[in-house]
Protein: MFS transporter
Organism: Amycolatopsis dendrobii
Amino acid sequence: MKTDRASDTAGSVVRATLDSARLNGFHRKLALYSSGGPFLDGYILSIIGIALVQIGPQWQMDSLWSGLIGASALVGVFIGGAVFGPLTDRIGRKLMYTIDLIAIIVCSVLQFFVADAAQLFVLRLLIGVAVGADYPIATALVTEFAPKAWRARLVGGLNAMWFVGATVAAFVGFFLLNVDQGWKWMLLSSAVPALLIVIARTSIPESPRWLHSKGRDAEALEVLRATIGEHATLDDLPEAETKTPMSALWRGGYLKRVVFISIFWTCTVVPLFAIYAFGPQILELFNLGGGNLSHLGYGLINFFFFVGNIAALLLVDRLGRRPVLIWGFAISAAGLFYLGLQPGAALWLIALAFAVYAVFNGGPSILEWIYPNELFPTEVRASAVGLCTGISRIGAAVGTFATPWSLANLGLSATMYIAAGIAALGAIVSAFMAPETKNVDLHVASSLS
């Protein structure tokens, strides 16, 4: 079979494989289009925190409904990842790559017409399902096309777009808060980038690794030759007969990987999503501006999260996955601990502590997507990413739902201490369980041998 794949190569011709290929325009285009999903996730989650500033008083919403609506999209992500990850492994990446965004467009438009909290909760839940479906689809596609030397940066870079989306949402919300019924336009606005992204994604082909895993080598080779060069070959892939069943995720070495990824991912997103969903309210408690000004500060914190992601992307292939993850957790925990210890400190110190947390959170954030895509084989990659995404979002949903209660009943300092403890737990678990996959071929990183 291997000789058949390479029959068109001869003599001194250099054959390109998926892992050895040079970065080209297709890889960049794929990464850009795939980043639309995390952009929308960051935008959708962040815009609701600002919209609730108008919706709450208008609907006389209590903390229960505020928490439910803030957490609804996260619950939806759990459902979407758990259901559509395995479906993506079964029917392929390409089809699901556009369907999920069409669902986001429809639900975003319907949000404009909601009349009560229950309707908004349902639509936010459905949007979350679509976002959760996109995580395993988009990240699997990028991982399965990316050259080894660029894999971490291309996959991790997708997560950086989450913060771009959140930053854009903060500034959109800042301006629309001055508009009557501005919250309707905030929630509708996510349909615009979703429409542009779904149009762009129609040009992306199916994953050659997935095609090969299904024994469709001729199609896989055709895709490779169209995307990485006419001398492309599948020689670096394991034989298609080597299968990893879905049940493998629930036992042995792969179960250990599921546990590790789920814990560190949860420890990353619980404090992060709580801050995003209720950022303006939290900043006001720290006296970092009041009213609409706090939303501008919220956007600047989002910018620091983005800077942290970029810094981590530059370091992850130099220092390795483990140190970027462990130290990222440890130092971001210190920033949160200071916020709990000194909530009345000088404003510049509060701002600095937020910046420290946001910048060093970049390491764990980019590895949320690098690790699960590297540590599982093609046959179950989307399923594993969906499973780990879903588990992490259960914790994030609980944290987001509990944040307004914690702020009201435990106080600001206790809430920050809890967030710091969660980040510290991430550092401890990572120190014991995180593997190093730097400079390792994808099929080797994903195997247990």
About this structure: Confidence is low (pLDDT under 50) at residues 1-14.
